[in-house]
Amino acid sequence: MTATAVELAAMMRALEIATHGPAGLNPQVGAVLLSPDGDVLAEGWHRGAGTPHAEIDALSGLSEEEVRGATIIVTLEPCNHHGRTGPCAQALIAAGVARVVYSVADPNAISTGGGETLRAAGIEVEAGLLAEDGTALIAGWLEVQRLGRPHVTVKWAQSLDGRAAAADGSSRWITGPAARADVHARRAAADAIVAGVGTVLADDPALTARRDDGSLYPAQPLPVILGRRPTPESAAVRQHPRTPVFFAGDDLDAVLEDLRARGVQRVFVEGGPTVASAFVRAGLADEVLAYVAPVLVGGDRVALDDIGVGSIADAVRLETAEVTPLGPDLLFRARVVRGGA
Predict the structure, then answer these.
(1) Are strands 151-159 and 124-127 parallel, antiparallel or unpaired?
(2) Has residue 316 got a pLDDT over 60?
(3) What is the pLDDT of residue 93?
């Protein structure tokens, strides 16, 4: 049986109400419960870690008689494991639901398999309804499941000859206003922004996401500072709307693990050649944003330093995703090609 028009409308509603829940450590999930006649019995969404999942939220407050024979429409495959809450697949079986329609399969090895469990219990299951929309809703979370860590974008601005600063260390501004505005919009779309303490001491960046008029975007990335030197109390980053996080070590895997535990899905690395090079060298860069200005600077202050490439055969290969003119500058956005890709 394919999805009905009523179920399609219910999935659209489920995708809408899923956004009521927070994005981060857990996916945003919405659910709509339909009677055998197609009437909406209840709606639910996941409200954060440790709270009932969307399916359970929708079931709450209804009697066994109301739920028996119902269809539940949910944006993510019902979970199949005991975490902070019980498995939704078993809860749906116990409730007497007759049909389950979900959009996106759960890729998490721990919680996947809910659809199979439901089918084995005699419940009709329809998978993949509005899968493209469902995937877009939780794209960041799905990427974290695939990578096992947050997605990392490494950004730098450079002259045409690959320099990030002049001989005296000055770097403001290599690129123009349009490029800088684009950077701030991308900061606002990230969950965390990473800079090295050297950049913080040299440039005193605020690490906020700002509009052209200087006002702040509603969404601000978590500022993350890497390095052993202390950040002065007077530093601009300490006035950030969100409390900065400081890491003294150089274990980038541990940094990303910590950020993942905080619900960070997208990391924007913007803090100077040392930090940018470290992420690329460690194989932790997924995407590169290179803003290239039509100026020549010369000297040895390159945009990237040692990234562990001793031979051209070891070069980090990129797949160009887009080249965008931004005033006089160009933005090169490229994905890092992994082995076998």
Answers:
(1) unpaired
(2) yes
(3) 95
